[in-house]
Structure formats: structure tokens, C-alpha cells
Amino acid sequence: MYNDILTYLPYKSSFLFIDNISALDMNGVTGDYTLRKDAFFYEDHFVNNPVTPGVIITEIMAQIGLVVLGIHLIISGNRKAGVTMDGGSFPLLTATDVSFFKMVLPGEKVIVTSKKQYFRFGKLKCLIEMHNGAAELVAKGIFSGIIKNAVIKK
Amino acid sequence: MDRKTIFTELKKVLAPYTENKEMLDGISEETDLIRDLKINSANLVDIIIDAESQYNIEIDFDSAEKMYKVGSCIDVIIDKMNQSA
Amino acid sequence: MKSAGNDIVALRSVDKQRTSQFRFYSKILSALEQALYHQPQFAEIPFENYVWLLWSVKESAYKYLKRTIPGLVFSPTKIIIQHIEIPVGPLINKFEGIQWESNGYSEEFYRGKVIYGSHTFYFRSKISEEWIATVVNNNENFENVWWGIQSIDDAGYYHQSKAVRTLLLNKLNSFFPGDLQVEKNPVGYPVILKDLEDLHIPVSLAHDDRFVAYSFILNPLNNS
């Protein structure tokens, strides 16, 4: 529904952890991602016992909850003006505080919900939660990032 | 009390804090409590207190900081026992 | 020189009764630190938490210093905490999870200043029902200080050691894709190798009972 925003994301496919954005407004975002069974991080983590590493969980939460929302906040109203994002204009994660409650196995689908706490002076702070397909809480945390201005093409 | 007796008794003092009990049998005066015996540093104070109780001595800060090898533990214990005798 | 220092104390393995004995805590706390506990801000903090909080700060500072002073011997009463602020929010966090990680936040932590001789450090600590964890830095800005904690099933030494390395390397892999290794240098502190080359990232590892913890200093902007 809101997936056109994904074209603004500066990630390559192996490091893009968003399948769908199902809700998006100025105050929050919801999206999901299904962990690929052949993802590079399962090889070593752990041998014969693949579990999604916490850093990947954090990355999924940040991409959906902070990056997508951050980009939406910058470009809304400017979409028609032709906004382009480059390496310097996407949100940069500056602070995180995340607790993990459940493991995520290869092939599982996770749903990320983010609520904006504030967006001031280019700094975005969100409370982000991740649930699994059984609606169990997987992880929860506070994420902050700095958003530099996007370049608006005339 | 001689050095050898203290050495044997010290093994008993260290035992509750070492995971690797077999390793305790093979210790020498050069054995490092943390590095070799894998004793958690948070237990060093326990070991000092246990040694104090065992020999009825008091181990001050300056002596306590020397007690990171089996041999230096024995040195401190003998030293303090001589002081209190 | 940039360094790193952290520590974790598992509260399950703490002997509360022993901690409250003068002959025990006086080997960890200086007279001034003992007096500091009687300030009103600590009224709701149990004494054993106070003692082990300070212990973890001292141990973290010791690890930080050990990189620059290889011959240093840990002497808790010589590393002195000068100032402690308690968190805005709960004094004890619930840790129902399996893992926790953070960088950059401040007001939610215990925080303060610690000195050893002419060296000054700053610390951030977090207390849960099960553990006390600390990280130190030589600067009051913790934006580039990364730390994490994980609970593990097996408290055996070799398992702890393996688990903490996996946890750290996974985190570092998100900044440095490729083959990373943790090696101990002769002084005893860990170094991170990528394709057998030293990355010169100061890291610190800790474990106690069923908990493992890492910390490292990294400015992602300088490394990307």
C-alpha cells in the first residue's frame, strides 16, 4: 500500500530488510519482513542451529521503524517536487536501547510497529516493537537518528 | 605452619571458586588465579576473606593486591601469620 | 589512546550477607565511597547493589587502563568513584528478555565519574533484577560506545567465553562484513582481527554466571 517509499531506501537487496509497509503516517509506521532461510548470517550463527542474530533484529526494526518513517517525514509534501535521497540524506542511527525477548528462526515473518516520540531539529526518536507471526513480542526498544535534509531537485 | 601445608590448604580455599577442579590438582606457585584457574575476579575478595578466616589474620589493601598468583597468596599468608604471632 | 572497559556482575551469585560485612565491602569501597552511600539519593538502593555497582565500575576502569598500563594490578580501593547520578526512571529494570544492547543513551543509566591517579573516566551502568552491567569511557559522550548483554543457558567457562565472542562478532559484523576473529594479546586484552589484520577497535568482554557482556568504541562514520 505504501511500498513506493521503499524506492527511496539506499540499501542493496542483501541488506534491505523490508517486504511491506502496511501503515504509514506522520506519527508512526507498521511494516513486515520475512527472514530468508538462505540469509548470509545463518551460516555461522549458529552452525547447525540457525537463529537470527540480535543485530539483524535491530537492523530490521531500524529500517522499518526509523528509516522509513524518517524518509516519510522529510519527503511528505515534497514528493511531486522530485526528491532524491543519497548516502548523506537518509536517517543515521545515533542511539539505540533494545531488549530482545524471543528468538526468531529462519523463515519467520516479523511485524514492526514504530511510534514517533519526537522529531525535532532533525532528530527522530521512536519507540519500536517487533512481534512474530503468533503476535508474541520479540523485541522492544528506543531508537534515535539524525536526519539530514534530502536534496530536492528543481 | 610450612609452605607446603598452606599450599595444600589453599587448594581447599580456592575450590569453591574454580570451575575446573581437575586443574586445581595440577597447580603450582606460578598458577595465576584468574588467567589459569578461570576464577571470576569478583571472587577474589571472597578468597581473601576466606583466607583471613582460615588463618585468623587480617589482609590489608596493599597485600591483597599481590594475591593474584598461588605463590604470592602463600607469601602474604605467611607474612601475616608471622605478624600476628 | 582509545580503550574500552566493561563488566557484568550476576546478582544470583552475590552473597548478600557477606557483602554487607565491613571486612568484605571495605576491601572494595574507599572510606569516601562508604560515606557516599548515605546520601539521600541512594536511600532506595539496596547496599549490596551499591557495593557491586561500584565494583563493576572499578573493574571496568581497570580493564580500560590495562591497555595502556600492562603491568597494572587490580586494586579496587585505588580506583575511586567521585560522583554518581541515579537514573531518571526505574532504579532496577526488569530483564525478562534474552538479550539487550545499547549505544548513546544516558539519562536512563546510573552515570558518574571515576578516577585513578591522574586518569579520569566516565561510566554508565544498568541494574536489572538479575545483573549489574557497566561500561566506561574517557569522555562524557557515549555516542560511540556500544554495549550489549546476553543471557545464556550454560554458565560453564568455555561456553561463556564462546557465547560472548559470538555476540560481539555478530555486532561488529554489521559494521565490518567479512571474517572476524577475537584474539587475546599477551597482556590479556582482546583484539579484533579481520582477515588476520588488527582492526584496532578497542573491545572489552565480561561474563559472570549466566550472563555475558561486551563493549567497544566505534564511530561508524569514520569506518564506513
> What is the H-and-E element order of chain A?
EEHEEEEEE
First-residue to last-residue Cα separation of chain C: 21 Å
User: How many extended strands of chain C?
Assistant: 12
Strand content of chain A: 35-45%
Oligomer: heterotrimer
Helical content of chain A, roughly? 10-25%
Computed Rg of chain A: 15 Å
Number of domains of chain A: 1
Largest sheet of chain C, in brief, is:
5 strands, antiparallel
Low-confidence stretches of chain A: none
Q: Which structural class is indicated by helix and strand composition of chain C? A: alpha+beta
Alpha-carbon Rg of chain C, integer: 17 Å
CATH architecture of the largest domain in chain C: Alpha-Beta Complex
CATH class of chain A equals: Alpha Beta
* CATH C-level class of the largest domain in chain C: Alpha Beta
Q: State the CATH topology of chain A.
A: Thiol Ester Dehydrase, Chain A
Short summary:
With 154 residues, chain A is mainly beta.
Helix/strand layout:
The complex is a heterotrimer of chains A (154), B (85) and C (224).
Chain A: E1 20-25, E2 28-34, H1 54-75, E3 83-84, E4 92-100, E5 109-120, E6 123-132, E7 137-146, E8 151-152
Antiparallel strand pairs in A: 1-2, 2-5, 3-8, 4-7, 5-6, 6-7
Chain B: H1 3-14, H2 21-25, H3 44-55, H4 61-64, H5 70-84
Helix pairs in contact in B: 1-5
Chain C: E1 5-10, H1 16-19, H2 22-25, H3 31-36, H4 47-66, E2 80-85, E3 99-103, E4 110-116, E5 119-127, E6 131-137, E7 145-151, H5 157-173, E8 180-184, E9 190-194, E10 197-198, E11 203-208, E12 211-217, H6 220-223
Antiparallel strand pairs in C: 1-6, 2-4, 3-7, 4-5, 5-6, 7-12, 8-9, 9-10, 11-12
